[in-house]
Specification:
By secondary structure, this protein is mainly alpha-helical. Helices cover about 55% and strands about 10% of the residues. It is built from twelve helices and six strands. The strands form two sheets. It has a three-stranded parallel β-sheet with strand order 1-3-4. It has a three-stranded antiparallel β-sheet with strand order 2-6-5. α8 packs across α9. The longest helix has 23 residues. It starts with a strand and ends with a helix. The chain binds flavin mononucleotide (FMN). Flavin mononucleotide (FMN) binds next to α3.
Length: about 290
């Protein structure tokens, strides 16, 4: 089984699903022939799937299965704070952007995050810019350093380093040893403190750090919100993973069937492809 992951929340290279999927599917077929696999690997699609139409399109391209990510985080089961789920429920497609990743910060790797209602992407990008242009924390221009200490870190950088040092001494002392003779590495660890904390503040709904929330999110969230407007799934308090997943799959069946009929010349009414989110009990009624 292989999942082709198009433009998604979190780590992504932002490829459009419609361009990526046929390439990965044909690669699976070619490799299967070349190595003589008994069965061609199943290829699923993730990234940007949050509506029945998107799932129907994935299956029409030959996807064996679909996966969702961003919309799950907006569900009550996700463990994300109420604040974050409310922010996600407000997101539109253009409300996402790429920001430096905590895990591969030094390499310039980015993750897709929410930008509406938080300054995290801008602040994280500023840290990466300083990391690129300065050789150590001491080389940061005093006005910039003052701004960082006042707004992002809300503490002297020396204190943040002391806290970071304690953290790594317990978990990975090699990082501390390296930073003793590599001041740029020390700067990276201090900056990564902010990136890491920003995800925790979001998850926990830390009220004093709302402006710094790091929330992984892709454009699928905006597409979902548009579909859910005025329905039982509009309020974040009513978003449940099973209800959403079944609605997407059920709606994809409705769209696919309507398309089969149209292709056979059946004249369907304009609302034949309407897929308003339904209660689970209503879906079960249809499936009986
Ligand atoms: C909050 C969040 C956390 C994720 N964590 C991981 C992870 O740890 N490992 C991974 O392979 N993918 C991870 N992903 C990617 C998802 O598994 C999924 O492939 C992707 O979100 C699908 O695209 P979508 O966000 O457009 O629905 C994460 C996505 C989100 C939104």
């Amino acid at each position: 089984m292989v999942t082709a992951e198009a433009d998604s929340g979190g780590h992504t290279d932002n490829r459009p699903a419609i361009a990526l999927f046929p390439t990965i599917l044909s690669l699976a077929t070619r490799l299967s022939e070349r190595f003589g696999y008994g069965t061609t690997p199943f290829v699923g699609l993730a990234g940007g799937i949050s509506t029945p139409a998107a799932a129907a399109a994935a299956f029409a391209m030959g996807a064996a299965y679909v996966m969702t990510g961003s919309i799950n985080q907006a569900c009550v089961e996700s463990g994300a704070s109420d604040e974050v789920r409310a922010m996600l429920a407000q997101a539109r497609q253009a409300d996402v952007t790429m920001a430096p990743a905590a895990d591969m910060f030094e390499m310039g790797v980015t993750v897709q995050v929410l930008k509406r209602g938080t300054m995290f992407p801008m602040r994280a990008a500023k840290l990466y810019e300083l990391y690129r242009s300065c050789g150590s924390l001491d080389e940061i221009p005093p006005t910039e350093r003052e701004k960082l200490e006042k707004t992002l870190f809300r503490a002297p950088l020396a204190d943040i380093w002391a806290e970071t040092r304690d953290y790594f001494m317990k978990r990975e002392p090699r990082q501390v040893q390296r930073s003793e003779h590599d001041p740029k590495h020390r700067m990276a660890l201090v900056f990564r403190w902010y990136l890491g904390q920003a995800a925790h503040w979001a998850k926990d709904g830390e009220p004093s750090r709302r402006i710094d929330y790091q929330v992984w999110c892709g454009p699928a969230m905006g597409a979902f919100n548009e579909w859910a407007t005025g329905s039982i799934l509009e309020s974040p308090s009513r978003r449940k993973v099973v209800t959403i997943a079944l609605n997407i799959l059920f709606g994809a069946c409705v769209i696919s069937r309507a398309n089969f009929l149209r292709l056979q010349g059946v004249n369907l009414p304009a609302d034949a492809m309407a897929t308003q989110p339904l209660e689970l009990t209503e879906i079960k009624e249809y499936l009986r």
